[in-house]
Prior knowledge:
The chain is mainly alpha-helical. Helices cover about 50% and strands about 10% of the residues. It contains five helices and two strands, in the order E-H-H-H-H-H-E. A two-stranded antiparallel ribbon has the order 1-2. It starts with a strand and ends in a 9-residue tail after the last strand. The mean pLDDT is about 90. InterPro entries: Cro/C1-type_HTH, Lambda_DNA-bd_dom_sf. This is Helix-turn-helix domain-containing protein. Pfam families: HTH_26 (PF13443). It comes from Streptomyces bluensis.
Amino acid sequence: MAIIVDLDLQLAKRGLSVGEFADAVGITPANIAVLKNGRAKAVRFTTLDAICRTLGCQPGDVLRWVPDDGADDDS
């Protein structure tokens, strides 16, 4: 299973830089980079709430699930 973070797409749509976005959300640009690069192990609901409020979007606009190869097997 892979969770894909589409922050780059959302930031580009709104013309926001990582620094502006990080300030608006209240987390560091380094933590935004961890999210954007798919290295985050978890996201707090409060952070997800701030991201969605800042971007005016739903969580599904930022996060999506992509099955791994072979995920169709019932074993």
